[in-house]
Amino acid sequence: MLKARVIPCLDVKDGRVVKGINFVDLRDAGDPVEIAKAYDAAGADELCFLDITASHEKRGIILDVVRHTAEQCFMPLTVGGGVKEVEDIRQLLLAGADKVSINTAAVNNPELIEQAAKRFGSQCIVVAIDAKQVSAEGEPLKWEIFTHGGRTHTGIDAIEFAKKVVALGAGEILLTSMDRDGTGIGFNIELTRAICDAVNVPVIASGGVGTLDHMVDGIKLTGATAVLAASIFHFGTFTIAETKAHMAANGVPVRQDPGN
Amino acid sequence: MKTVIIDYGSGNLRSAQKAFERAAASAQMAMSVSLTSDPDEVDQADKIVLPGVGAYRDCRDGIRRLDGMWEAIEKAVIADYKPFFGICVGMQLMADVGLEHGSTDGFGWIKGRVEKMQPQDTSLKIPQMGWNTLDLHHNHPVMANIKTGPEGLHAYFVHSYQLVPEDDADLIATTDYGGPVTAIVATDNLVGTQFHPEKSQKLGLAMIENFLKWKC
Question: What is the mean pLDDT of chain B?
């Protein structure tokens, strides 16, 4: 049986992890490669790097980070942030990323998804959708797409957009609720379920995890096949093993291989 | 001893190379592992690894574009009887034919076709993406000392198509995704996995180590 995936996400800026990582036994708590190795050993099912490097000159640094990670971690790695053209995707895949996630460019230039899927295969093209609720209290639920890290409101309907990117060749959707991101009050279940029902590719639920019950709900109540979280892992609130034990105990099948 | 991983432009092979190097070190074998696009190197190698991601036809065409490579692989595998490991689409290419984007001939070492998966449970997503366990149908040296079954180790899958072998004897292991789905095929000196051993942590490294020791 296919297991639900637990995916830690690291924000990387200029080759360094942005928020402090509260891990014991790390030589360098800001080094993404070290942290990737620790998550690999801890039994994370995949790893996600979000490159938030602002300056164009420093954008090549993430390629080195990916290269070193891929040499040492035998687990799937998704990399996103600032991906604008096919060449950006090619560079990341050549450096060793297994999947590349596209966010703003998927909205501004949807043809990029089609070109990339044709060239590299749908299996490595993830579209990251940042959605925010726009319906008022009492109205039918409606969510729209935000880009540029949530700053730009596009007016595009999230469900329609999800269908469109899958038709163009996206192999997976990384769905973040902007209303919930950073709140710790749990995933937006209605949004996640609506997107999962609309598309036939795997959906990763993201944004809002604060407790281990949230991880259970993120899978059980939505149809998502993976849950992504950052703070609860980085700050050491919960380990990957604790998370998986809790999910398993609550009826969500997860991978718990010994020694991983 | 020398293992070559065939590089025909199908994605990044760095982690595959590193995984094979680590497994060779763990097995304490004097085994070099190199990436190659050169048919002569295939001729000189002891073991052949054929990776592959993306579409069936693109992978077939990628190999065909390297002058003499298709023939070098066939010679190494059939005439010279060298151990061969196909990964993902590299495994699917072992079949007679692939049906992704039209019909495309494969190497034809395993009788059967590569077809789109159709899980009985229609709520299951395509591609299958993630970690799944293996159900062993036949013992094989590459699976020695690897725990399978529902309580066994997991392998990492990303695929929408599967190889359906005609001969049951070629089907070494399946995985359950709305019904049994081909996970490992093998015949004679050839073995192939639908999953990615180089991304499958413990199970993957153990399997690669077994392959490196196989027929040595």
Answer: 95
